[in-house]
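Structure (tokenized):
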């Protein structure tokens, strides 16, 4: 390093002891948390820790999959801007990119699509499991159970260090998620199950398994088929979000990918995460029409309600996915008819973007604000909305999981705590309490 260049370190003085420490700065803005442990007040001291509930400022992994620049509203999968992928790619091509790291040649893509196409069936015993649910069981509760159950059909998935086994399980999960989702929908509606059809595209096959009635050939409207594929691209990955963190944490114990993904789906189900798209639709329906917006916004300003579909831990600018979804909505409504709740959503956004409460907190529409309007217009019930998030995010979860499994720096996730409980005390017999 040239003589006069600044050292890439932090100089820390512990004023309790007067001791000084030099902490290496890595990658421009990173210090290793373990480097804090040398800061002690006495030799028997545990050493310094960092306290970070919700991991608001903690990197718990390095990754090469997805990059999000929240300040500029930029999202890139393996370096490719989301706008270009949504415009020019397909979901299975993006899946290949996220999983393998490069855009495929035509032969590679054809092989990947074939592999997915020929693994869309699920074991017939899965249908028996589905019959055990009430007719009104929430689709996400069913899906979490079914994905966990798949781990019992493929016990070889436990060998997470075998690359061929990982590839086989990844292929199975990408292929079977639409089938499972369609089965939950048909169960909910009391309709006979429709089996996968190999000559249909990934989105068309899904729509076919969901909506075909009778023996007639079902061919989805190409605009809706493309809109669903774009929505799948937009939802495919988003670096270290809550559910991906769950996938990595569960996977860090070397659990199989089906069990880890069931946990990731459980995290996604929460209304603050992937369950927000369902919560947005319920909120818009509750508001009903633009005349009710002022009263609702007052409840938000008072902190009584949250404007679901707004805000993001990382984006402090407009979520680029929300912009694309908003444009896609117009294409869908041209086919399905305009969703009247769109007027409520547009007016809410217009008010929120001028509202001091939201401006001060950098709250913008996120990926979940407009997606539900499209899903509803396409005929999906709100209970299926989080499932429509989980299907494409399967690819992101698995790409991140496989990166973690192969990362030599990764160990079983086991964070520390700051204990605030009781001092040591002796047991008191019940008669003396
Ligand atoms: C997804 O992480 C990802 O990448 C997630 C995701 C992905 O692709 O995986 O992008 C998908 O989950 C999108 C987010 C979907 N969730 C929602 O739309 C639910 C509503 N939004 C939030 O609850 C909230 O904005 C979060 C959960 C998204 C982010 O929460 P943070 O970062 O913990 O922020 P916070 O809850 O601490 O809020 C900061 C402030 C608070 O006010 P003050 O305490 O400072 O007074 O902003 C307020 C919050 O009350 N706030 C909101 C709000 N979101 C934050 N107030 C009203 N409405 C909202 N939506």
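Design, position by position:
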């Amino acid at each position: 390093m040239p003589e006069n260049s600044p050292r890439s370190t932090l100089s820390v003085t512990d004023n309790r002891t007067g001791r000084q420490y030099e902490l290496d700065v890595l990658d421009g803005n990173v210090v290793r948390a373990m480097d804090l442990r040398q800061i002690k007040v006495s030799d028997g001291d545990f050493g310094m820790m960092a306290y970070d509930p919700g991991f608001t400022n903690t990197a718990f992994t390095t990754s090469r999959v997805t990059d999000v620049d929240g300040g500029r509203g930029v999202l890139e999968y393996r370096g490719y801007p989301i706008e270009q992928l949504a415009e020019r790619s397909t979901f299975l091509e993006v899946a290949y990119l996220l999983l393998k790291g490069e855009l495929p040649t035509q032969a590679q893509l054809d092989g990947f699509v074939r592999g997915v196409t020929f693994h869309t069936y699920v074991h017939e015993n899965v249908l028996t499991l589905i019959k055990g649910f009430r007719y009104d069981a929430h689709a996400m509760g069913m899906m979490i159970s079914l994905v966990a159950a798949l781990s019992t059909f493929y016990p070889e998935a436990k060998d997470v260090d075998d690359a061929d086994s990982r590839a086989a399980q990844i292929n199975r999960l990408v292929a079977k998620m639409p089938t499972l989702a369609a089965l939950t929908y048909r169960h909910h509606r009391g309709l006979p199950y429709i089996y996968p059809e190999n000559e249909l595209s990934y989105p068309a096959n899904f729509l076919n398994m969901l909506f075909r009635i009778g023996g007639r050939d079902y061919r989805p409207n190409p605009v809706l088929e493309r809109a669903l594929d774009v929505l799948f691209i937009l939802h495919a990955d988003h670096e270290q979000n809550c559910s991906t963190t769950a996938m990595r944490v569960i996977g860090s114990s070397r659990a199989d990918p089906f069990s880890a993904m069931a946990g990731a789906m459980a995290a996604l189900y929460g209304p603050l995460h992937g369950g927000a798209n369902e919560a947005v639709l319920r909120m818009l329906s509750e508001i009903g029409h633009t005349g009710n917006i002022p009263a609702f916004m007052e409840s938000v300003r008072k902190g009584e309600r949250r404007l679901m579909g707004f805000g993001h831990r990382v984006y402090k600018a407009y979520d680029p996915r929300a912009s694309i979804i908003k444009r896609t909505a117009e294409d869908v409504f041209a086919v399905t008819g305009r969703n009247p709740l769109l007027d409520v959503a547009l007016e809410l956004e217009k008010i929120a973007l001028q509202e001091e409460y939201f401006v001060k907190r950098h709250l913008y529409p996120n990926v979940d604000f407009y997606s539900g309007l499209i899903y509803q217009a396409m005929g999906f019930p709100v209970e299926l909305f989080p499932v429509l998030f989980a299907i494409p995010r399967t690819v992101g979860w698995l790409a991140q999981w496989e990166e973690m499994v192969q990362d030599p720096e990764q160990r079983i996730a086991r964070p520390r705590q700051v204990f605030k409980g009781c001092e040591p005390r002796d047991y008191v017999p019940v008669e003396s309490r």
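Reviewer-requested clarification: The domain at 116-406 is CATH 1.10.580.10 (Citrate Synthase; domain 1). The pocket of s-citryldethia Coenzyme A is lined by residues 54, 238, 241-242, 272-274, 276, 300, 306-314, 361, 363, 366-368 (CB under 6 Å).
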